[in-house]
Amino acid sequence: MVYNIFRPLKEDERKDVIPIEGKRTRSILDIFLKELTKVKLTFQEKYRPFDFYSARIDFEEKVANKIESLRTTLNDVKRDAGIDFGDLTKYGDPSRFNFIRKDVLMEDKLLDGIRQPIKIGTRYHFKGKFKGNRISIQIPIYRKGDDANHMKSMEKWIDETYINPESVSKETIEDDKKEGDK
Predict the structure, then answer these.
(1) Domain presence at residue 29
(2) Is residue 10 part of a domain?
(3) Number of Cβ atoms within 10 Å of the Cβ of 94
(4) pLDDT tens for residues 58-107?
(5) How many structural domains are present in the chain?
(6) Is the pTM of this model over 0.70?
(7) Of 59, 86, 99, 109, whose CA is between 20 and 30 Å from 117?
(8) Are residues 113 and 62 in the same domain?
(9) DSSP assignment of 85-134, as one string?
């Protein structure tokens, strides 16, 4: 014989129960990451660098400072637990990055029985000025019917924003490659 050990809750028991089904409680980190991802997506659609890493680190520092201030505040009336995310688009500002180099992406394809390298896109490498993290953006080559202007607009944007990226010295590029290998 099978016994059901679960019984329906009584009315006064239901008042004290917190349901675990349905809506999940969201932490401040979940809310922040959702907002940050929305902003990051707008930059990714334009093929522009966005410093997600620095934004996350800065947010964690804000939270730590807020917790410390709440812990040391004696007056309960003046306690404000809210955290302002600020303007998250500042993490996509071109002045936050140094343009390092551009690489052509090649892939071997079998054409008429002969393996040949084919250009499949271009990758642009950037380095963050504040935290030193690297960001790379890959722009694929589009086929017929697709928007093929992304590569041209990126080249124009780099020329306009980073004045003359060819002026980056070879020592800087070699240092960056060495750091990337570590």
Answers:
(1) yes
(2) no
(3) 15
(4) 988 888 888 787 777 666 555 566 777 888 899 988 888 888 888 988 98
(5) 2
(6) no
(7) 99
(8) no
(9) ---GGGGG-GGGEEEEEEEEEEEEEEETTEEEEEEEEEEEEEEESSS--E
